[in-house]
Amino acid sequence: MAILAKTTNDLYPDLIALGGLENTLQSALREIGSALPVLELDKDLSLAVCACVESGSRYSQVRIAAEERMFFLDFWARGVMLAQGRTPRLTELARAIDKWVASSCSTADLAAAFSFVAVEPKAAAYERGEEVEERWRSYINVIGFPELAPFVEAASRRPQLRQLFPYTSMNIFCFSRCTGYPFTLDTPFVRPVKENWYEVWSASGVVFGHGDAEAAAELVVANLPPGCGPAVPGTADDLGGAEPGVAPDPARR
User: What is the rounded CA–CA span in Å between residue 169 and residue 192?
Assistant: First the structure.
C-alpha cells in the first residue's frame, strides 16, 4: 500500500513551483478548459496533502504519494465513493475529475474513458437505485460479526427496517434514513451482549431495552422516528434536520 505524503516533496516540483496541490490542480483544470473550482481545505484537519473538487452531489478528492510521483483520486456521488484511480499525470487527473464532477456520466463511462479508474463493486447497485436492497443482501449473506447474524436475519424480515440503509460501526448494527455518508443518527442502534441477546439504544445513550433477535428487532421498529420512510439517496445533510454522524460508542454512555 502506498504511503500518502503529509508534505509536498521534491517528487512534485510543479506543485512546489505553484504553491501546492490545490493551486496546481486548479491550474490543470483551467488548462483543459474546465470551470470547476478547487475547494479550500482546512489544513489542520487533513493528515495528508489533499485537494477536493465538488459540484452538486459529486466530488473528487486528490492525494499524493510520498515515495513515488503518483496522484490518487476518488469519485463520489451523493455521499458514496463509487470509483478510485491513480496516475502520475496531472492532465489525465484533471480530465477525469472534470468528466466526473462536471457531468452526470456513469462510472462505466468514466472507466471506459480513463484506464486508470477502477469502479467499486457496489457502484452498479447505487447507480440503479438498488443500494438499500443490495446492502441488505450483503449483510444477510456475509457479515463480519457473526454475533449479529440472528438479529440481521430478524430485522431483514420487517418491512419498516428493510427499507432503511443498514451499516455497521465496529460490532454495532445501525440504520440510516439516507444511503450516503454522513448517515442519519435518529434511528436506534443494536449491540450484541451475548449469544442471541442484544441491547437496543439511541444515539443519545437511552437504552430502549434488551432481548433476543426477534425482541430486539421489534424494539427498533417501536422506536423509529415518526414518519420514518424509505432511505433516500444522499446524505444526512441533504435531509435537513437529521443529525449526521457515525454511531456513538456505547462504552461512553
Answer: 12
Extended strands (E) in 123-237:
165-169, 172-176, 183-184, 189-194, 197-201, 207-211
CB 9 within 8 A of CB 66: yes
With residue 227 as reference, give the H or E element that holds it. none
pTM: 0.88
For residues 21 and 15, is the Cβ–Cβ distance under 8 A? yes
Give the HSE-up count for residue 91: Cα atoms under 13 Å, Cβ half-sphere: 3
Element spanning 100, H or E: helix 90-101
Q: Residue 130, SS3?
A: coil
Cell numbers found for residue 126: 447505487
Each residue's pLDDT tens digit, 120-151? 999 999 999 999 999 999 999 888 889 999 99
**What digits encode the pLDDT tens for the residues 55-101?**
999 999 999 999 999 999 999 999 999 999 999 999 999 999 999 99
Separation between Cα atoms, residue 111 and residue 129, nearest integer Å: 20
What 3-state DSSP class applies to 224? coil
Q: Where are the domains of the chain?
A: 13-126, 131-252
